[in-house]
Amino acid sequence: MEVETVVDTGESQTAGVNRGPSSAPLRLVVNGATRVVDLEPRTSLLDALREHMQLTGSKKGCDQGTCGACTVWVDGRRVLSCLTLAVTCEGREVTTIEGLATDGELHPMQRAFIEHDAFQCGFCTPGQIMSAVALIEEGNATTDADIAEFMSGNICRCAAYPNIRAAIREVRDASA
Amino acid sequence: MRPLSYARVADVDAAVALVSADPASEFLAGGTTEIDLVRLGVHRPDRLVDINALALAEVEELDGGGLRIGALARMSDVARTPIVAERYPAVSQALLLGASEQLRNMATMGGNLRQRVRCAYFRDGISPCDKREPGTGCSAIEGLNRGHAILGTSASCIATHPSDVAVALVAFDAVVRTVGPDGEREIPIDDFYLLPGDTPHLEHPLVHGELIVAIDLPPLPVAARSLYLKFRDRQSYEFALVSVAAALEVQDSLVSEVRLALGGVGTKPWRARRAEQQLLGGLAEPDGFASAAAVELAAAEVRRHNAFKVPLAERAIIRGLTRALNGGAQ
To answer: How far apart are CA B309 and CA B317, in angstroms?
Structure first.
């Protein structure tokens, strides 16, 4: 097991780094915990999460930045972990779907997705939820048209879009 | 993906020194093009030099009313910067109509200018492609070319330039500022993009290791009433079939100033200079717009699947100019 959890030292990113091509220990802060994993520079953040940290919530759909299933937050902004190299996240805070619930309580958006039946197969759902929470914080959930536009980077092959919008509306209105 | 080394640098000089000294090194900014193409095997660097720590992410006001946009400013941040949306609304609109919010949060302005084409034959890594592998030919000319260019094409390449924001920047005569191994340069954006000719692998005049550090927008009052329209196969998160950046000033019913550029139809972001010339001094009315559109598209060279782009582009120009005439109102 190459994962260890240590106290977050809060260190920021430093320049003058040279690594690779072979693997070396990399310190990443994921969902508030610092983890040190052996990674090659070519490893994507998505593969680091799924294959090296056993955080399989973030999904690999296309692996080329078109489906949104791998959406996570880096320093609070939603990004695509498939097009992000893990090594570039050193010193940054990564949040995944596994980091949304607190003390065993689902995040309101997770509850709203369940209540509104906002998924069928569920494969895109972690990415949808990471986008949806960020969407409200960005102020991009004001109208249905805004929700549709600013959620367009998360594809749902089951076409649960109306119910996804309903879940987002509910959380938006409850947090207003 | 091939194995990669990685370096992270703290300043522009170190970045330029590292990459220019090593033909197998490439810059890494937002990564939305670079990581994609490295994974596809289309880009084959041995080392990526991470420039995200460089202090190039600001949008500054320039004397006289222009703006300097740092090369590492992210698309989403630039789109929402009030002075960008007020002075150059077409820039802001073009940014928000491109990609998705996740990609816009990652992608940088400098990287946007240097993004590669979306031609499937370029991206697949195996088809004959003069851009990817000079001398092998162009698979798109006789292939599936519905999305391909109708202006600025050659026998070597008909790939469309995919950027939205570059179309607005070309309309406004932006200037690309770079730092390279031989020092600083300012390149007018229309010169920054090269037509494919018989050297489609050369897309811009930058030397290896030359880094875009900023994009300057000159003071341009007419741009404050500009707009960007985009037409595509689905309403969001799709590249343009045709797009238009337009700005218009009218005095005594006559066009006194006009800026017009097209996306989705050219091998580079297409400044519609023929149409601009036709419009200047003429009546600002739909017939004049239609005749200017026809003049610009007269040079179009269509292929089997993309002839529809000619009437689509003409109608897009008419609509763009009409809306610009009405102050950008929808």
So the answer is: 12
